[in-house]
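In response to the reviewer comment on reproducibility (Comment 2.3), we provide here a single inverse folding case reported in full, input and output, so that an independent group could reproduce the run without further information from us. The structure tokens appear first.
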């Protein structure tokens, strides 16, 4: 839908996740994550109100609590929001993305989730496989294990850490084009 320019109406959770993401980026740039979250979430709520889309008032407090939890146990320092572009063989359009936090030999990803991820689900996430393929294309090797932080909202705000160990097979599968 991105390539075709098809826009889906925003959901409260999508915009909340964006506000959290911008706050974490601010944190890793040395800026105030709480101010960034407040600004981003206020703008998101205004948009949702204009569109007639509801949101839970508890999300403001949940966002602040998630940022406090992250601040108490942050990912190692790195360069936030590093853009990549690569074109796997057989694709007519490039894949463009951003690694959330780049380290010397790997990167970290931050995800917000209403109910969290199920154990074992990290290996099934297509985005992680595609990002590993992009890393390999840019750096000539797969990344060291990728740290994934999931910021869960329900039933109460928590952080869950996962480690994703990319494999060549998973990266290849993620960017392969079906044969016709």
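Designed residues, in position order:
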């Amino acid at each position: 839908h991105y390539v075709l320019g098809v826009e889906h109406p925003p959901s409260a959770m999508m915009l909340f996740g964006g506000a959290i993401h911008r706050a974490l980026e601010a944190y890793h740039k040395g800026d105030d994550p709480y101010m960034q979250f407040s600004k981003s979430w206020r703008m998101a709520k205004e948009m949702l109100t204009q569109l007639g889309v509801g949101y839970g008032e508890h999300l403001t407090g949940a966002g602040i609590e998630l940022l406090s939890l992250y601040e108490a146990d942050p990912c190692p320092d790195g360069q936030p929001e590093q853009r990549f572009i690569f074109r796997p063989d057989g694709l007519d359009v490039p894949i463009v993305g951003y690694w959330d936090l780049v380290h010397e030999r790997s990167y970290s990803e931050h995800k917000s989730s209403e109910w969290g991820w199920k154990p074992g689900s990290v290996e099934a996430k297509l985005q992680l496989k595609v990002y590993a393929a992009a890393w390999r294309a840019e750096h000539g090797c797969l990344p060291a294990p990728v740290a994934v932080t999931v910021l869960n909202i329900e039933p109460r705000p928590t952080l869950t850490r996962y480690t994703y160990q990319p494999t060549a097979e998973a990266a290849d599968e993620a960017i392969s084009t079906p044969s016709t």
